[in-house]
Amino acid sequence: MSELSQEVSYLPPREIIPSAIEGEVARDAQQESSKKIINLDPAQALQRADRERLAKIEHQPTARDLIAQRSLNLYATRRHEAA
Amino acid sequence: MMFKKVLSLITGEDTTAVSFTMPKDRPFKKRTERELLQLESEIGAQLFGPIPPGHHREFFCFDDKTWIWYEEWKDPKTGRRQTTTTRYEVHEKGILKVLEGARYAFIEGEELANLEAATALYYERVMREVYGYDPHTGLPLGTAHSLS
Lengths: 83, 148
Fold this sequence. Notes:
- Chain A starts with a helix and ends with a helix.
- Chain A is an all-alpha fold.
- Chain A has helices at residues 3-9, 19-39, 42-59, 63-81.
- By secondary structure, chain B is α+β, with helices and mostly antiparallel strands.
- Chain B has four helices and five strands.
- The longest helix of chain B has 21 residues, at 109-129.
- The termini of chain B are far apart.
- The A-B interface holds A 63-64, 66-68, 70-79, 81-83 and B 29-33, 36-37, 40, 61, 63-67, 88, 90, 94-95, 112-113, 115-116, 119-120, 122-123, 126-127, 131, 133, 138.
């Protein structure tokens, strides 16, 4: 058995973890994650911020997408409604 | 009359033989695509503010990839009739603006934002006023879901 799976097998089932411990674990994880961000060098941090910004932009419809969607809907509606 | 001319300019077809009499007294009669397009254009022409006296404007979604802006006016100095037709085409890369004389460019910045806003208003009004659909849900106006 690998080291990882041994480690996992010792974890108690999720439902029996008391909520206080759960909160502590979450807080520790958050602190750890903050440390990681702080430990990034400026170039890495910039790259990470760029990636996050890009991901946000990519999920938003652009003006072109909105115009394209309206054109499609209008044309389909007109054809559907026409005699 | 003007609308027929604009359409024939765009499609290259002679539309003079087509009757454009609007069946206002028969609201339940189905309209042809061209009649619907004309109704859409009447709304589209109002979206860019007041039309100056002596000017004529058409703005409409021609098909699933093309928007047309047509403007006609008389030059006050020469008295000659001036026209301009602008076609906006939806491409994968963006919105291509095509002007007479094979001039074309992808629009961006304020011009793209203005066109996007105009198409939003057009869509909102045309879906409601011409077709009777809620533009957000796509349901017929007056149904329970379209009011939510």
